[in-house]
Amino acid sequence: MQHELKYIAHDVGLHLFCGPNGSEYLSELHELVDELEDLMSITFDAKWLNIDGIRWLLPASYRLRQRIAAFRDNFKTILMKLIDRSQSDNDESDSVLARFIRDSTDCEISFEEFMDTTIEGLLAPTEGSAATFTYTLILLAQYPHVQSKLRESIQHLGYSFNLNDLHDIKYLDHILSECQRLYPIFMFNAPESASCDMIIDNIFLPKNSMVILDVISLNRNEDVWPQPLVFKPERFESITEEQRKAVHSFGIGRNRRCLGEHMIKAIHKLLVAHIVQRYEIRLPEPIEIIKRKRRPFIYVPEQRLHFIPF
Ligand code: HEM
Fold first, then answer.
1. N or C end of the chain: smaller count of CB under 10 Å?
2. Does any ligand 1 atom lie closer than 6 A to the CB of residue 279?
3. Does residue 283 share a domain with residue 136?
4. pLDDT in tens, 66-118
5. pTM for this entry
6. What is the rounded CA–CA span in Å between residue 21 and residue 85?
């Protein structure tokens, strides 16, 4: 199921971003997701890109620029075809693309900006979403009593249920929060500015200093989270104000918060509930900690799992 899991956030997001016709280009878009992952990795590690002069001399720099240009051209071709189709169908849906076409005379968003937003929201977060879903499945295998408790709480739903049926199963939400606390995909948050002069641990931070939080230290701080290395979704049944502020899974506050948060929570609930209802998830052998592999901006798990049908 690695393939399905890998693209699940993209395939759900495709409908929201491009409307129903988007699925006609599914395999080309999957190739673009893979190419973007590769391009982001190379660009992230290519420190020479920032050195004036050198970047004009290195052949690798030209190859990278060519690949980025080809990636953008390919994506642009798909978007243009979808825009033509949407116009000829008189698409009145609520997709981002249909809205862009409808509002294009009134709004100031250029095609380039629309394309960049779609790359950032549709193609880029796919791998991180899959990583988060996979961490949950691994943790459920590592903690069979949590898996059993979840199965008991959804047993009455049978095999055919939808998101509304899961609305009251708060344990599923707590499992996601606890998974993101223990295994966040981002090691650091997006940079923020200090709102006033402040002193933290005897270090003076002037107003407007750029602050980047070390997410792992926050999430595993023993003073804030008792037994921080234990996967215990119950701790989210009632959290203190200090804990609420420490959780940054999808950003904090309103500004720049993750736009995909509600979609990810919904997919996570449905996916995990349907799997747990049908399969027992087991590890091939016991593990202490989950091995993680660094991708350009995130850490993804490396672990095989067994799914035993009931
Ligand atoms: C498990 C999956 C995901 C996680 C853990 C995650 C987490 C985050 C975090 C921590 C931020 C930074 C928030 C901040 O700066 O305060 C962010 C930003 C963002 N996320 Fe996600 N995200 C996920 C999936 C998605 C998906 C599927 C989409 C698209 C539908 C998405 C769209 C965005 C966008 C557009 C931003 C930038 C918002 C802005 O800067 O204004 N994310 N995400």
1. C
2. no
3. yes
4. 999 999 999 999 999 999 999 888 888 889 999 999 887 777 889 999 999 99
5. 0.92
6. 8
Give me the long-range contacts of 291-294 (CB less than 8 A, separation at least 24): 292/183
* Closest of 154, 179, 187 to residue 232, by C-alpha: 179
Enclosing domain of residue 72: 2-123
- Total domains in the chain come to 2
User: 250 CA to middle of ligand 1, Å?
Assistant: 6
88, burial (CB in 10 Å: exposed 0-12, middle 13-18, buried 19+)? exposed
Spatial distance between the Cα atoms of 192 and 209, rounded to a whole number of angstroms: 8
Note whether 213 and 77 are same-domain residues: no
Residue corresponding to tokens 């804030």: 224
Determine the pLDDT at residue 37.
92
- Where among 60, 94, 123 does a domain terminate? 123
Weakly modelled stretches of the chain, pLDDT under 70: 48, 50, 55-56
- Token look-up 């190379």 returns 42
Q: Whose CA is nearest to atom 13 of ligand 1?
A: 251
Q: How far apart are CA 124 and CA 302, in angstroms?
A: 20
